[in-house]
Specification:
Blueprint (H helix, E strand, L loop, with lengths): L11 E7 H12 L6 H9 L3 E9 L8 H13 L6 E5 L1 E10 L5 E10 L1 H14 L5 E5 L6 H9 L3 E6 L4 H6 L2 E4 L2 H4 L18
Parallel strand pairs: 1-2, 1-6, 2-3, 6-7, 7-8
Antiparallel strand pairs: 4-5
Length: 204
């Protein structure tokens, strides 16, 4: 039996997944990153009507590591089998950061900054709220920068649930409902290990 909104129709849900944030949270808290995304979405909506899942990430740079790039692309391709899932990609911007060595000298170390992903999430959550395409948004991220977004979507008359593995306290407090992604929630929906292939495929 479905869950119904105040208007009498089945509660419509959209899920917005910050892929890089989820990957690193799973890796550090659970130790495994290989999710069955269809079952993951089903568990989060819990009998409500799923309108769409949006998955956001930034592809690795092919020239930096061909093997990791191919594995990540294989993972992205596998998401095409998940019903109602749309992928949106930002980009990784390479920057050099100075680090001090024990002898006091400096060395430039390359690091990567994700660009565009947060903007996609903000635009999509707001535009679908304005268009009345969902009753409830489930934001899967622990990034405190989304706190104002959550509050704005609520002001538009929508419900917002935040699901993460223990991210920003302010983000959790801003949500109508907080869902802790823990081992009990993930029980039975993590795919079997295949070496470190999945552990390296989402993002690095």
């Amino acid at each position: 039996m479905g869950i119904y909104s105040r208007n009498g129709h089945q509660e419509r849900v959209m899920i917005f997944i910050d892929g890089n944030n989820l990957y690193h949270s799973l890796k550090h808290v659970i130790g495994r990153t290989n999710l069955d995304f269809q079952q993951f979405a089903d568990r989060l909506i819990n009998g409500r009507q799923l309108i769409r899942v949006y998955y956001y990430n930034a592809p690795l740079n092919r020239e930096d590591d061909e093997d990791k790039y191919r594995m990540q692309q294989s993972f992205f391709d596998s998401l095409d089998t998940v019903p109602y899932l749309t992928k949106k990609f930002g980009r990784l911007e390479k920057r050099l950061v100075k680090q001090t060595l024990p002898d006091g000298t400096f060395v430039s170390v390359p690091t990567y900054v994700e660009k565009g992903v947060d903007t996609f999430i903000v635009i999509d959550m707001l535009s679908h709220a304005f268009k009345d395409n969902y009753d409830t948004a489930i934001l899967i991220s622990g990034d405190e920068d989304f706190t104002v977004l959550v509050e704005t979507v609520k002001d538009l008359g929508k419900h917002v649930e935040v699901a993460n593995l223990g991210g920003s306290y302010l983000l959790r407090q801003a949500a109508d409902k907080y869902v802790l992604i823990d081992k009990s929630l993930l029980d039975g929906i993590q795919q079997p290990d295949r070496g470190d292939r999945n552990d390296r495929s989402w993002s690095e």
